[in-house]
Amino acid sequence: MNADQLVDRFINFLRIERGLANATVEAYSRDLNRFLEFLAARGHTPLNTSREEINLYVRTLGHALSPKSMARNISAIRGFFRYLSGSGRINKNPARLVEAPKLARRLPGVLSGAEVERLLGQPDGVSPKGLRDNAMLELLYATGLRVSELVGLKLSGLNLEAGFVRTLGKGSKERVVPVGEKALAALRAYLAQGRPRIIKGKDSHYLFLNLRGRPMTRQGFWKIIKAYGRSAGIKKNITPHSLRHSFASHLLEAGADLRSVQVMLGHADISTTQIYTHVTRERLKALHEKCHPRP
């Protein structure tokens, strides 16, 4: 079996058995193909390479890629050699001790409560587009869904009576997230008065549609929220993730426990959720310095 076939089997393993998201699998495939080209140019294959060769390759990446892209490349290589070792194709894993660059923890951008209110107040709430946009923004802030989860919602994933949505997150992992009354009211208005006027008798399983009656895309919603951010006079860089970040930060500020927020966000590791505690502490510190008589 040649090197390309080994990578193909590993990619199928990631997609089928590990259930990784398509975007992650495709990125790993590109990363490993680049690695194979490097090995082939030096007369090596994954079955006869060494840790020294892998470290040399990693050093070449440092001149071409950002630390984040480097870390992903190294993760792909490590996983590939773990797979080769676990399947008995190599006796010793040469990538076991290869280190990824340490990434600085970037604090996510969070909107204040007042900014969220201004943003959510922008859709007209009357036209089909306004009703749809209002429902999308309210639901995003109410649940902290990823934008891919939001636009991928099916009608069957929405339970208005019980007040929750069922979504598929990263790795096709299903989770149930509660929805507040304001978002539920916006969804009911959209389903009763907005969506029928958008779909015009056509058939679609998707909850949110563009004005042509097709499923809303991530890029389409990104443009929508950007436009509303500008009309709300918010100077911060607003993306769909801004409302996800704000959802998590505001819950923690109000006393929600970290584990509950982790479950609602769909984070596999609680350390990912813990970054929001840093945001909360920074905001409290700034508030203290601003308001305390002896800061």
Description:
The protein has a three-stranded antiparallel β-sheet. By secondary structure, the protein is mainly alpha-helical. A hairpin with a 4-residue loop joins strand 1 and strand 2. The model has no long low-confidence stretch (mean pLDDT 86). It is 58% helix and 4% strand. It folds into two domains: 84 residues, Tyrosine recombinase, N-terminal domain (DNA polymerase, domain 1, Orthogonal Bundle); 179 residues, hpI Integrase, Chain A, CATH 1.10.443.10.
Break the fold down into its secondary structure elements and pairings.
Layout lengths: L2 H15 L4 H20 L9 H11 L5 H20 L26 H8 L7 H16 L3 H5 L6 E2 L4 E5 L5 E5 L2 H19 L18 H14 L8 H14 L4 H8 L4 H4 L1 H17 L4
Antiparallel strand pairs: 1-2, 2-3
List the keywords.
295 residues, mainly alpha, DNA polymerase, domain 1, hpI Integrase, Chain A, 2 domains, three-stranded antiparallel β-sheet, 13 helices, 3 strands, 58% helix, 4% strand
| Beta-strand residue fraction | under 5%
Q: Remind me, CATH topology of the largest domain?
A: hpI Integrase, Chain A
What is the terminal-to-terminal distance?
A: 67 Å
What's the number of helices? 13
Low-confidence segments: none
Structural classification: mainly alpha
The residue-averaged pLDDT reads 86
List the quaternary state of the chains.
Answer: single chain
- What is the chain-wise order of helices and strands? HHHHHHHEEEHHHHHH
